[in-house]
Structure formats: structure tokens, C-alpha cells
Amino acid sequence: MADNSERFLCISTYEKGQDFLRELHTQGIKTTLLTLEKHRHGAWPFECLEDLATMPANLTNEQILNTVAWMSRERKFDRLVALDEFDMEVTAQLREHMRIPGIGTTAIAYYRDKLAMRMGARDAGFLVPEFVRVLNYDELREYMGRVSPPWLLKPRSEASALGIKKIQEPEQLWRALDELGDRQSYFLMEQFVPGDIFHVDSIIKDGKVVFSAVHRYGKPPMQVMHEGGVFTTRSVDRNSEDWKQLTELNARLAPGLGLKRGVTHGEYIKAHADGRFYFLEIAARVGGAFIADLVEQATGVNLWREWAKIEVTDFRRTEYAVPQVRAEYAGSVLCLAKEENPDTSLFNAPEIVYRMKKHHHAGLIVRSQDPARVAALLDEYSVAFVEKYLASMPPPARPTA
């Protein structure tokens, strides 16, 4: 007898997305998780999975494709979902190979390739810091003669601020390109625009933004990644001009880049020089660094679960119900810690609603109806975290699970 069960295959080479898997189970989907062998015994909701399959690290895309094709001999997968950004390209390739609905390799480039997304955002009418592909040396010379330094040499397909180098003068660029060798075309160069960095986390349905939340980083993530320090981010006042402008900009961005459904994490710079917002980057995923928890504390919306609901309703061709939103404010403070399991119990403000549990990290989330109270707590706690917990280490050349 044919098996007519509804099945999803989720791929994640990092330990994340547990609430996505739980929601699929709640929705009655039989789910297989494909992850790395080293995550076999991770904190997965095993009771929500039909199967957990593992693979060695560093497989090529072709080897992953062969693995999934072999798995598909016994089970028919109706949807493929990449839970982590670094799995999105191979999952898009799998969809096209297996002819399963969802975003393909060309469309996913606007959410993975920093050069493609900048070109797409610029073509859609967004302000973008002056950039140039690292390909033709005459183009690079023309760019450096026209655009004032400093410039940022950025990997096109990394996440966060990994691999970024600040370039002060042309000779420094040529030395960096010599070191990169044949890898240099996988980079772009962009003008460094001093400013405040904001992030907007969204839910997309039928090509429209149906939910978004605006937050502002303390120190820019690139500065925290490269110089160390305490990472903070907090909700923007909903009555402010920043909230209004970023909500309107973001409502145009994801549809302008072609995403039909899912979640996005977009980042924007409010330039110190002219006070205008410039597009920085966007990813078709839930934000890292406990941003999903931050959004849920401020709004009541769990981005992982809503993403799962959108995938299920699209597959079943049923209506997606936009979640009710709680209009509060939240902020998070997080740092690399010297102790393996730092004790944060000495912080006891009633606004503390979440204590992060991650080895060698200290972190808290606070919530209030007053955005000024959130800002004051983050200011206080970020100083205290430096004194009590902060450890430092060089930024990794590649992401680590």
C-alpha cells in the first residue's frame, strides 16, 4: 500500500531550528533531519522526528545530493528546508534536481551572495554603500580612484562579519588579493559607511511582509567580531521615525528580491554623515545570536514556529494566520565568557525574562513596556559583563558549529 504521509526533510549542519521541528510535528508532518555526525546527540527534539540521519563534515554538494537521493528511495519528501544559512545553496540545488517546489539556486543568491543582493537592492531603488566586484583590476582601480577609503573587503557568501578586512589604501588591497589567490573573485569591496546598524526580522507570505520587528545593535557586529566586547541589541521605539522608515523600507526589500515565503533577517546602516538608511545585507533565515528569542520576548512571535507554519500551509494550500503581536520592548546582552557555564544569577532585575544557556557565553534578555528602561538596563549590564565575564579570542576564519 502506498504511503501518503506528508514528509519534510530538514537540513542543518548546525545545531539550531528545534522549534521549527517541534512545530512541524504539531502540524502532523513526518520530519527527517539531516545533520552532521558530530551533532547526532545534540539537543534535538527527537520525539518530533521520524528519523535523524547524519553525514560527515565537508561533503561536496554533489555528495550531499547523492546522499539525499539515496534517502529518497525509501521516503517521498514533499518539501526540503535548510535551517541554517550555510545549507541554503545545496538545498536549493536539491530542490531543482528533485523538482520539489521552493526557492531555487538563482533566487537564493539574492539572500546568500552579498554581491548579488547589493545589485538587487540597488536595482530596486535602495541606497547601498558604493561597492565593486573583485574581478577586473581596471574596475578596482577606477573604484579606488573614485570612492574614498576606508573600504571593506568582504566574502560574498559568509554570514555575520566573518572574514571582513578593512582596507585603508590600494597597496593593502593588492597584498590581500595576492593572499587570496584564486579565491579573490569570491569577495567584493564596499565603502565603509560609519553609522548605527539596525536589523529588521520579518515573516514573508505570498511575497509580502506580514510581520516585522525593528531592533538596533549596540556596537556594530563587525566591531564585536573583530575587536571583541559585548554584543547588545534592543527594540526600537515603535513611535519613532526610525521604526517607521525601516518598516516601510523592509516591506519593499524582500518582495523586491523575489522571496515568496519564509523569514528574513535584514540589516541596514543609518549613516552618521547624512542620516539616511543604507541597505547592508539580508538573509532568508532566522537571525542568530539569540535574536529569535529577543523577537519573541518583545512581540510574542516565535519566528521558527511561524516559518514552519508557512511552509506547511503553502504545501497544503491552506490559509496562513498572521500571529497576534504583543507590543513590548526587549533587549539582549551577550558575550564570550571565561567560564564554561557562567552564573548570571547576581543580575536580578524584574525585567530579566531569559537567561542564555550556551557554553562559554553569558547572556540575558530583558523586557519592558518602556524602551528607555530596556536601553538603560543594556547600558548597565554591558559594562558589568566586561568586568565579570568577558573573554576574547581571534575571530574564526570560518564559522564554527
CATH C-level category of the largest domain: Alpha Beta
What structural class do helix, strand and pairing data support? alpha+beta
- Give the biggest beta sheet: 8 strands, antiparallel
CATH architecture of the largest domain: 2-Layer Sandwich
Can you list the strand order of the major beta sheet? 13-12-9-10-11-14-16-15
Order of SSEs: EHEEHEHHHEHEEHEEEHEHEEHHEEEH
Count of extended strands: 16
Beta-strand content = 15-25%
The rounded Rg comes to: 21 Å
Mean pLDDT: 93
Shape: globular
Pfam families: ATP-grasp_4
Domain ATP-grasp: 118-312
Protein name: Acetyl-CoA carboxylase biotin carboxylase subunit family protein
Keywords: ATP-binding, Ligase, Nucleotide-binding
Key words describing this protein structure:
single chain; 401 residues; alpha+beta; Rossmann fold; Dna Ligase, domain 1; D-amino Acid Aminotransferase, Chain A, domain 1; 3 domains; eight-stranded antiparallel β-sheet; four-stranded parallel β-sheet; 33% helix
